[in-house]
Amino acid sequence: LPAFQGVVRQAEDELAAINMIIGAAYAGARVMTSTSGPGLSLMTEGIGHAGAAEIPIVIADCARVGPSTGQPTRHEQSDLAHLANLGHGEFPRFILAPATPLECFQLTVDALNIADKWRAPVILLLDQALCQNTTTSPPYDLAGIHMVRGRRLSGADLEKMTEYKGYAFTANSGSPIAPPGTPGVWSQVTGNEHDEWGHVSVNPENRLKMMTKRMGKMVAAVPDLPAGKYFGEPHAKIGIIGYGSTIGPILEAQERLKTRGIHTRFYQPRTLWPVPGHELDPFLHAVDVAYVVENNYTGQFARLIRETVPWHHAKLRSILRYDGFSFRSPDIVRPITEGV
């Protein structure tokens, strides 16, 4: 990072790391940190603070076997339920799930842009097979990177304003911001509920408006969130859903099933929260059955799908593995073949 005018700091623990990036982001820097397992639990309160104070941060979570220390070097996808229901209270957050090293790079750019534009926490949900592995990847297209910093006010913008409101109510839930230190700006930030100026407020009318403003980002930001990908036969009646590093075994399983005359269509969601119902609904409508492949015991993404599009409940089947190892294609081929 120093070669690109960036800064790397080693924090003493996860509590320090999350609060350091909150402070740096509030000061106007573009920031991210990373963690896994218990470290994510320690960061949870800080992420909630960033959500309430509308401070843009990015956290990369390398999911591993849990709970507690679990198996630190083994693979699992069991953090999703925690991330989707992160912290106490309600606040906007976005969860992106890359599936390859190339997507890790691309979706990190997306995560930083989304955090800055919508002033909200964004989590990159990785897994052990992605975080600690060796692979061959095509060169990254650095020329294609587009940076979005959101609605930032300059000194010239402020001169035209009669007053500055750091949490101004707007039509699309996004408030323009001027970082502290900008000439002519006085601003206040707090994790307490606040009014448009950042002053602590317990006014019920203001509370309703602020909650609607913040949570409205979950809808307004949908066009900016990474779209899912589709593989296989477009008109196949057997669907497969999987995120993260399950993509490799699923693609191989599709080829094996095809040789047996079993045609499938695979949907790879790249945004997990908010759950992409606008993508899931037509996909599930087009198939007779859909197998959700994930590395956890309770079928966490399948549960979120059922909550979002409950009318497709009967079509969903879970293929689960939670022994600390990644899927292999036979683990997917077998239950689908048996279900035909």
Percentage beta strand: 15-25%
Output the CATH homologous superfamily of the largest domain.
Answer: Thiamin diphosphate (ThDP)-binding fold, Pyr/PP domains
For the largest beta-sheet, the strand count, sense and barrel status come to: 6 strands, mixed
Query: Uncertain segments of ≥5 residues (pLDDT<50)?
Result: none
CATH architecture of the largest domain: 3-Layer(aba) Sandwich
Number of helices: 12
Number of strands: 11
Query: What overall geometry do the principal axes of the alpha carbons give?
Result: globular
CATH topology description of the largest domain: Rossmann fold
Question: What's the mean pLDDT score?
Answer: 95
Instruction: Tell me the domain tally.
Output: 2
Share of helix among residues?
A: 25-40%
Describe this structure in words.
The chain is of the alpha/beta class. The protein has 2 domains: 2-144, Rossmann fold (3-Layer(aba) Sandwich), CATH 3.40.50.970; 227-339, Rossmann fold (3-Layer(aba) Sandwich), CATH 3.40.50. 35% of the residues lie in helices and 16% in strands. The chain contains 12 helices and 11 strands. It has helices at residues 14-26, 38-53, 80-84, 101-118, 128-131, 155-159, 204-215, 217-220, 247-259, 277-286, 300-308, 329-339, and strands spanning 33-35, 58-65, 71-75, 94-96, 122-127, 229-232, 238-242, 264-268, 271-273, 289-294, 316-320. The strands form 2 sheets. Strands 1, 2, 3, 4, 5 and 9 form a 6-stranded mixed sheet that branches. Strands 6-8-7-10-11 form a 5-stranded mixed sheet, with helices on both faces. A hairpin with a 5-residue loop joins strand 2 (58-65) and strand 3 (71-75). Helix 1 packs parallel to helix 2 and helix 9 crosses helix 12. The chain starts with 13 loop residues before the first helix and ends with a helix.
